[in-house]
């Protein structure tokens, strides 16, 4: 029972598209620079009425379509932009999706590596839940924590959610790798608290939280750690790069994906690329790309799939699995 297979996928991105041209009107940037340096043309931004929960619910409803919800044994939501510190996003999804109550409901804060970590965690949890499945989600409203006066970050981020239902699989193979190099200097987003204790001075971290990043350093970290992590995962799976049918890399910057592809000697056509119209949606990018891949009809029974991501923490994670069956979508 070491393998893992996907039973359903879904995604949701808000209808409002913030284009590069629109960004030119609010910060000192230009469309061509953004396109050339990142591969991004536009990003989806949530409306006032939307929440991380509403986007996650929409994605999860699609992933659960036609599946037995009573079999769900774990719901694992990856997010750095939950609506509440408590209750967690996963607990609210249990409620809104009508999932069983005898389940593990866990949020994961691994930034962009979160969805891959959710898959790895779910695979472990399902080991002692025979017959059960897991719902894994990556959902982010990064527009909440983006500083739209900082041209070095505001051109990158977008909002969205993706989800998948998985089960352990006797026949297939699952292998994974992950790591963390704690660092709040290169990439961070400070938590916001009320801080109105009249007996203490107002601390520095009462200021609004926004993503701050040293782009060049994160760029280097991303290519190096992601490539090495994929190599370790493939070794554990006893698989070669060439035997993999589909690669899904975190969609942070087209040039980072190209760098990993070159380093690992991957056929570029095997990579899912959707960064043009989504931008970087942190934990949601791999989840949305997985949904795009499955709905494209390109995944056949027996296909080998690799997902890999890097991000805040700093963290990285990769996973390999063999898909045992094709998924039929009704929509
Ligand atoms: N428009 C125009 N010029 C810009 C912009 C902009 N939006 N942003 C920066 N520049 C300028 C800089 O000021 C600099 O100008 P200078 O040479 O006159 O000083 C020049 O462009 C080059 O800047 P760099 O920072 O070297 O640009 P780079 O090519 O590295 O691209 C980028 C920046 C896109 C941020 C890149 O470094 C990157 O993608 N890094 C990785 C980010 C990432 O993957 N984050 C993932 C984690 S996110 C998370 O976990 C939530």
- State the separation between the terminal residues, measured CA to CA: 31 Å
Number of strands: 13
CATH superfamily of the largest domain: Thiolase/Chalcone synthase
- By DSSP (H or I, 4+ residues per run), the number of helices equals 10
Helix share of residues? 25-40%
Number of separate structural domains: 2
Give a short synopsis of this structure.
With 331 residues, this protein is of the alpha/beta class.
Secondary structure elements and their pairing?
Layout: E1 3-12, E2 17-19, H1 20-24, H2 31-38, E3 42-44, H3 52-64, E4 72-78, H4 89-96, E5 104-108, H5 114-125, E6 133-141, H6 151-154, E7 159-169, E8 174-180, E9 187-189, E10 211-213, H7 215-236, E11 246-249, H8 254-264, H9 275-278, H10 284-295, E12 304-311, E13 315-322
Parallel strand pairs: 4-5, 4-6, 11-12
Antiparallel strand pairs: 1-7, 2-3, 6-7, 8-13, 9-10, 12-13
Helix pairs in contact: 3-4, 7-8
Bound molecules: acetyl coenzyme *A.
